[in-house]
Amino acid sequence: MLACVLLWSGAAPAADFVVIVSAKSPVTALRAEQVAAIFLSQTGRYPGGEEAVALDLPVGHAMRDEFYNKVAARTPALMKAYWTKMVFTGRGQPPRELPNSVAVRRMVAENPAMIAYIERTALDASVKAIQVMP
């Protein structure tokens, strides 16, 4: 159990990313399925009712692949198929992509509605890492 908590909090060496929100956001923790629902356009709200807008790293980025594998249990191929279906049926659009963790952090810092994942080393006081619970 402790290993799972460490893995989700980003403390394990394999999880070199953290899920972030603006330092101005009231969100401090989410369950993995809540994070997945936001990133998969299944919801546009945090549990408290506030707007939630996901940001992504580019397709093919190793951290993106690891994030979706851990949070949504989906491989890059499954994610491609998922978004192809969602876009084709008009049920959703993938999150906006930014080129790197620094660009993502800057965008999240400016908007309390945004949620993203970045390299742990890119954290600063403008954003906060939230706890992602299994």
Features:
134 residues; Phosphate ABC transporter substrate-binding protein; 20% strand; alpha/beta; two-stranded parallel sheet; single chain
If you had to describe this structure to a student in words, what would you say it looks like?
With 134 residues, the chain is α/β, with parallel strands linked by helices. The protein has a single domain (2-133), classed as D-Maltodextrin-Binding Protein, domain 2 (3-Layer(aba) Sandwich), CATH 3.40.190.10. Helix content is 38%, strand content 20%. The protein has a five-stranded mixed β-sheet. Strands 2-7 form a two-stranded parallel ribbon. It starts with a helix and ends with a strand. Mean pLDDT is 91; it is low at 1-15. This is Phosphate ABC transporter substrate-binding protein.
| Helicity level | 25-40%
Name of the CATH homologous superfamily? Periplasmic binding protein-like II
Strand order in the largest sheet? 4-3-5-1-6
Can you tell me the CATH topology?
D-Maltodextrin-Binding Protein, domain 2
Q: Which structural class should the secondary elements be placed in?
A: alpha/beta
Tell me the fraction of residues in β-strands, as a range.
15-25%
Largest sheet: 5 strands, mixed
Question: How many individual domains?
Answer: 1
Count of beta strands: 7
